[in-house]
Each structure stands twice: as structure tokens, then as C-alpha cells.
Amino acid sequence: MAKPEFEFTPTSSVEFTPCTPHIEGLSEAILARDDSNDSVTRILKFEPGTDTSPNGALTHDFWEEVFIFEGSFVDQRLGRTFKAGDWATRPPGMEHGPWISENGAKMFEVRYYQDGKN
């Protein structure tokens, strides 16, 4: 089934749940999901002090577009700080992270597949 249709809805109506794999202080609010291909629109939340280093750098088989709208975090691999107003587009296979967020952060994220890949 395609992502559901929603008219404007407050994000506060969507519950944050722990991410998989679990990292203390990292949670997500799934705004929409297409179960047929696992495309997802979500808000990713870093609580103050969140450290994703136990997961190491990430790569995945989907496209990922992210926009930081609150707070900041440090990319441990790049040694750079990214903050509210910064964005990224990551193609499948692009290495990114891990991150540490001293004061917390929130990102809007869209994950999707192209060319018929699931």
C-alpha cells in the first residue's frame, strides 16, 4: 500500500519510538510508510548526549534526504558539526556518521528506493 493520505496534521500527534538498532537517546516518529517498498517519512530525534558511535558508520540500499530543523550534532567520521538549517541527500551506499549530539537535534527525513528496488 502506498503512503497514506494526510491533510496537515500536528507532528505532536505521532509518538516517538526507539530506533532499530537501539541507541540510547535516539528515537523516531514515523509520519508515513509505504509497506510495499519500505519508503519512510520520519522525524529522527537525538536527545541531549546521544552518541551513535556504537553503530559505527552507516550505509544502506535506499536514498535518504534529511533536513536538520532543530539542534546540532557532530559527525565523528568527518569531524564536522551540522546544525539546524543544514541538509543532505545520500544515495544508496554512501557512508555517513556516527554522530554525537551534545544538546539534542531533530531531523526531517525521507527514505525511498528508485528503479524498482525494494
TrEMBL record:
InterPro entries: ChrR-like_cupin_dom (IPR025979), RmlC-like_jellyroll (IPR014710), RmlC_Cupin_sf (IPR011051). Gene3D superfamilies: Jelly Rolls. Residues 11-108 form the ChrR-like cupin domain. It comes from the Bacteria. This is ChrR Cupin-like domain-containing protein. It comes from Arthrobacter cupressi.
